[in-house]
Structure formats: structure tokens, C-alpha cells
């Protein structure tokens, strides 16, 4: 039993909440209430970006949460056909037992996903590419494009210029030149690896795979990250 398992919190949605230890694995802090509130902010950030592009989230029949963790945002998509995946079996197991409306599975640290081509109307990816080494960036983005339906949308968040205070002067110069900046690449796939994406890098690298529809600096208010919306032609 963790010393942190003393907080009692009943989620307003009536669904179970993860333990403080699981919350810490995905957020770096132990408060279940803060975890829940942050998930609401994350969901609202997504819906806001969809709405400003005249996309009704209620019309999205099939949704994928890539890097779902212990359902921080996924729990708020309970009214649609939502699927989630994560590389951590413990987190996936919790979602499977606690969020019965969702279909969840374990993915590898490298593509492919188990899904077929053109399965999803909408996929969202919050603070995942911020922890992937450079050689996995394009393969994973391409894989997410593969499972997206034609006309489907992909919402992705990245560390952008609002995080320059975390970089050295040399890294700031590389970032300003439009280069990807990676810290602790050897820990790729974990929170110890931090990746910073200049807008120019995102546009030329990922915009060549899917059409870029919208960009909102720090639009992902739950993660304090830049938010991009892509569309498959």
C-alpha cells in the first residue's frame, strides 16, 4: 500500500479513479483530484479545437486515444466508440477493468498498431511525441495516419516555443533554426526523454504526411503544449 493512497475522491462522472501511484506514473504527481480536473481540461481543449474548425465531436463515430495512460482524457469520451492503447500493460489493465465503455490494448514501443487501415474518424495524441526519439517520430506519425479514415482528423500536442526556458542556449539556437531538440534520447518512450518541436519542423515533417488544418500555440491547456490538428485527405 502506497503512503499516498490516503486521498479520497469521487469523480463527478461516477467512474472509478486510478490509484495515486498510477496517477504518478502518467502525470508526475499524486493527486487524484488534480488528475481528474486535468483530464477535463484536456478534453475541453480537444473539443474547443474541433469546434473552431466546425467539427462536432458527437459526429465522431470511432475515436482512438493513442497513449491513453490510465484514462485521464479517455474517460470523457464515454458516449462514443472509443479505443485506447498504451505501451504500459499496467495502465491498460486498469482501463480495461475500470472503463468498460472503452476497448483498450497494449501497443509496442515501435509500430505497427494492431488496428486495420482506415479505422478511426478521430485520433488524439497528447504528450506522446514529446517523449519519442527522432527515428520514431515519422514512423509513429505515419502509422497513426494509416489507421485514420479518409477525411478523419488527428490531434497532436508538442512542446513548442513556450518551453524554451527548459533549453540551453545551444538548444535554443537549434530550435530557432527549426531543428528537433531531444534531451535524454536514451530514455525514449519515458517521461525522462523530452522532445521539443519547432512549428517549422512540424509543418514540413508531419505536414507532408497529413494535411495541417489548424495550429494553436499552447492550445493543449492540460499539457501546456502546442496543439495541431491534421486531416487525412
Please provide the count of β strands: 9
Low-confidence stretches: none
What proportion strand? 15-25%
**Tally of contiguous helical segments:** 6
Task: Give the overall pLDDT as a whole number.
Answer: 95
Radius of gyration: 17 Å
Helix content class: 25-40%
Cα separation of the termini: 50 Å
CATH architecture call: 3-Layer(aba) Sandwich
Could you state the order of secondary-structure elements as H and E? HHEEHEEHEHEEHEE
The backbone outline, from C-alpha atoms, is globular
Give the spatial strand order of the biggest sheet: 3-2-1-4-5-9-8
Alpha-beta classification: alpha/beta
How many independent structural domains? 1
Q: Report the CATH superfamily.
A: Vaccinia Virus protein VP39
CATH class label = Alpha Beta
Concise account of the structure shown:
The chain is α/β, with parallel strands linked by helices and 233 residues long. The chain contains 6 helices and 9 strands; from the N terminus they run H-H-E-E-H-E-E-H-E-H-E-E-H-E-E. The radius of gyration is 17 Å and the shape is globular.
Question: Could you explain how this protein is built, in words?
Answer:
- Helix content is 29%, strand content 24%.
- It is an alpha/beta fold and 233 residues long.
- The chain has a single domain (20-231), classed as Vaccinia Virus protein VP39 (Rossmann fold), CATH 3.40.50.
- The protein has a seven-stranded mixed beta sheet with strand order 3-2-1-4-5-9-8. It has a two-stranded antiparallel ribbon with strand order 6-7.
- A hairpin with a 4-residue loop joins strand 8 (211-220) and strand 9.
- The N and C termini lie far apart (50 Å).
